[in-house]
Write a structure and sequence with these properties.
single chain, 726 residues, alpha+beta, five-stranded antiparallel β-sheet
Length: 726
């Protein structure tokens, strides 16, 4: 505190002594005062040039270099101004050269301060030779215009003082300096705070100086004296900004760009996700970035002085060292993958990129490089290779398409089964491989699914290159990215030719069996009628014979019904509707299932929205199909219900539009989405999965809708049969 106060007191005292001394000198000899002030400004301007010019190879401050060149010529013109001042006795042919040179110099200085901001950005470089040549040419023109051609406008006249040109020029120069001050404030973040403050004061006093020089009548008057004081202050402040600061704190002026670059570089290094390092000629770390603990678990200071190979497995260290040795011999860069060991023995795969550090003689004195942790990427690559091998080895054909169904990849099985090459398939629509005819209903259905972006599956049949027909089960599903946007389709082609052949054989056998079963049934059904015609049977015998006859007809009905189901599956069943009493059929079904229901203590309850049967209970249907469809659902409900729980059947709507079968027990979640599909069953010891499937076939033929409602919370299941108009 004491030292600072003493220093400030000394500076103030010195400033007062200098100012008073200059004033006394002006009273004694104004030319002496004027010469001392101008020489000070000339020395400062030349000092700016000396610092800026000789540091141009070490700094990137285009602003300083431009001003340095400009102030050299400002110094020269100020020297001419001093020598041509009235009374100096050097130029005796005209007394007012000094005023003309003054205006020209101030124009040059103010415009240079304004133009320097154009070069403040690093991208706008200064061509020192061109700028120097331009200022030399301008200065030569000014000197010629004043001293040789004598065409420079008159600035001062005896008796009247300043000319209009001189005054207007001073105001224009003030405006230019004001614009430079405004730009300085706009770009203050590019200057050191101390330098910025001195530059502002310099510009302010320069403006004050120019304004003072608009009032004097005599070159030795008070206004002229005040203007030179302001000029003295102006150059003192620019001296503090660019000369004194450039010597005592070079980073603020000369090396500010370098300091900013270092700060930027350090920020980039410390925020980088890569490990940045340097090694010396012996390949020992001389620098390791702060990311080392996050990647390897070692602190940078633990690694400095050691080699990268000290952190590698033994089998990896040798090849890595040899790679660096060979690169150093040729002066080349090193790019390879190395495996490092972390503090806990965890292997970290690094992608190393490095360049040599050359000494003054061009020899390799070390390496500077970057290690990128690619462990996760290598794991992904391994997974992708495994996935690729699995896809290419899969016994199922796999295809990847674009979002519009154009094939982008197919595995060997797909190409082999189609008996084509990749070149024949890539770029073609997948619909061409779903049917022989692109207009086939299956191909159109798959195409619609792809355009809608939804999954599709189905059995397709087409001929291969040899003309042999084969069957495939095709599944197509959309592929989305992490944001949920669709990017591809993936399709699988499973060969089911053999399965289709077995299914066809099974169907043929079943048809033959159904046909052959009818022949013995004719005897079973016909014999009871012959016995009854004899009229010699007891009442009990008659009952038994009629039971045999009824059973035979029931079996025949079942055979015929199974034939009907086959026709429904193949699409050749002829549906012939007639008027059917819904309540009557429902009651018959419940009566037929009453016996198995009683064994489980289950009651079968029927509710009809309208008690009396009549026209409102009639629907257009096939009575046998309607009976079998409803019988399957009631049988499932009785089988799925816990003992003692009722099964409720309700006929709703006037006229009848909906039938509901409600029972306790929820459908297992595993089969809810496939409840009406073939062979879908769960938890039943003798379940075949054909009951609900056959009911769905019959409902589709009759044009009825089916709906499943099941709930784990309520532990109930409701099957709704929706009749036309519901």
């Amino acid at each position: 505190m004491h030292t600072t106060s003493t220093s400030l007191f000394f500076k103030i005292t010195l400033a007062v002594v200098v100012l008073v001394g200059l004033y006394l000198a002006s009273l004694r000899n104004y030319l002496l005062f004027h010469t001392m002030v101008e020489m000070f400004s000339i020395v400062v301007a030349f000092g700016i040039f000396t610092i800026g010019w000789n540091s141009r190879y070490y700094i990137k401050s285009n602003y300083l270099l431009f001003l340095a060149i400009a102030y050299l010529f400002v110094a020269f013109l100020d020297l001419l101004h001093t020598m041509s001042y009235k009374g100096m006795g050097i130029f005796t042919d005209y007394d007012y050269y000094a005023n003309q040179v003054w205006i020209a110099t101030r124009y040059m200085e103010s415009l240079s301060l304004l133009a320097a901001f154009w070069f403040l950005k690093e991208s706008r470089s200064v061509n020192a030779v061109r700028v120097f040549s331009a200022y030399f040419a301008i200065t030569a023109v000014i000197v010629a215009a004043v001293f040789w051609w004598r065409i420079f406008p008159v600035c001062f006249a005896d008796g009247t003082g300043l000319t209009a040109f001189k005054k207007i020029s001073e105001y224009i120069i003030c405006l230019i300096l004001g614009a430079a001050t405004w730009l300085l404030f706009r770009m203050r973040d590019r200057f050191d705070p101390v330098v910025f403050r001195w530059l502002v004061w310099s510009l302010v006093f320069t403006i004050c100086s120019e304004l003072a020089f608009t009032f004097y009548i005599s070159n030795y008057g008070f206004s002229n004296l005040l203007g030179h004081y302001f000029k003295l202050f102006s150059f003192y402040f620019i001296y503090r900004a660019l000369v004194a600061t450039g010597i005592t704190a070079p980073h603020a002026v000369l090396f500010r760009a370098l300091q900013d670059s270092e700060t930027k570089f350090r920020g980039l290094v410390e925020s980088s996700r890569d490990l940045i390092w340097e090694v010396d000629e012996a390949l020992r770390y001389t620098y390791v970035s702060p990311l080392a603990p996050a990647i390897l678990g070692y602190a940078p200071e633990e690694m400095v002085g050691m080699t990268p190979f000290d952190f590698m497995p033994a089998d990896q260290a040798g090849p890595a060292r040899e790679a660096f040795r060979q690169a150093a011999g040729s002066g080349g860069a090193v790019h390879r993958e190395n495996t490092f060991l972390g503090v806990k023995g965890r292997e970290v795969v690094m992608e190393t990129r490095s360049v040599p550090i050359l000494d003054a003689e061009g020899r390799v004195a070390g390496y500077r490089g970057v290690d990128r942790d690619v462990t996760e990427r290598k794991l992904h690559e391994l997974e992708l290779r495994q996935l690729q091998r699995a896809v290419e080895s899969s016994p199922i054909g796999i295809v990847i398409t674009s979002t519009d169904g154009i094939i982008e990849y197919g595995n060997p099985v797909f190409y082999g089964r189609q008996e084509i090459t990749g070149a024949d398939a890539l770029g073609r629509d997948i619909a061409l491989f779903l049917a022989d005819d692109p207009q086939d209903p299956v191909a159109r259905e798959a195409g619609e699914a792809l355009r809608a972006g939804r999954p599709w599956q189905g059995d397709v049949s087409r001929r291969n290159g040899r003309g042999d027909r084969f069957w495939e089960h095709v599944m197509i599903a959309p592929v989305t990215d992490r944001q949920g946007a669709q990017v591809n389709f993936v399709a699988t082609f499973e060969d089911i030719t053999d399965r289709k052949a077995l299914e066809k054989l099974k169907e043929d056998v079943e048809q033959i069996m159904r046909h052959d079963l009818k022949s013995p049934l004719n005897g079973i059904i016909g014999i009871p009628q012959l016995l009854l015609d004899e009229d010699n049977l007891s009442e009990q015998q008659v009952t038994l014979v009629r039971l045999i006859e009824s059973t035979g007809y029931r079996i025949l009905d079942m055979i015929n019904h199974s034939l009907d189901l086959f026709k429904m599956e193949t699409g050749v069943y002829e549906y012939t509707p007639a008027d059917v009493d819904v309540v009557e059929v429902v009651q018959t079904v419940l009566n037929d299932h009453a016996s198995p229901a009683r064994t489980k203590g289950i009651s079968l309850d029927l509710s009809v929205e309208r008690a009396a049967c009549g026209q409102d209970c009639l629907i257009r249907s096939d009575k046998d199909l309607f009976y079998h469809m409803l019988s399957n659902f009631v049988a499932n409900a009785v089988d799925a219900s816990p003992d003692g729980c009722p099964v409720q059947v309700s006929v709703e709507g006037i006229p009848c539009r909906e039938i509901r079968i409600r029972n306790r027990g929820a459908v297992p979640a595993e089969i809810r989405d496939q409840f009406f599909e073939k062979y879908k069953t769960w938890g039943k010891k003798r379940g075949t999965g054909l009951g609900t499937y056959s009911s769905k076939l019959m409902a589709d033929v009759m044009g009825y809708g089916l709906r499943l409602d099941t709930s784990d919370e309520d532990d109930t299941t409701v099957i709704s049969i929706l009749l036309p108009g519901a």
